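Handoff note, outgoing to incoming analyst
You'll be picking up this chain. Sequence as last confirmed:
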Amino acid sequence: MYYQLANGKIVTLSVDQFLELTDEDVQYLMSIDYGDYITDPFTGSAVENTSKKEYDFSFVSVDDESVNDIVSDDLLFDDIIDLEGPLDN
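Most recent structure output, in case you need it:
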């Protein structure tokens, strides 16, 4: 994640580093003039990231049962719906 210091410079921190960041750490980073100025507002955004992830959906296990084989229409939701409950007054 990007974190902007009070002097306007940007530093890159992990979430754990950000959660452990103290005021003294921020003062130290500014005192050593650490970080960079970012002029592009889209730096590190998804707009710049054009890589596409590819997923392999061709693999289907032969051992897996089909959902249609497991669920029959007469047993669907019978265990969670009380058909003869207080609403049948």
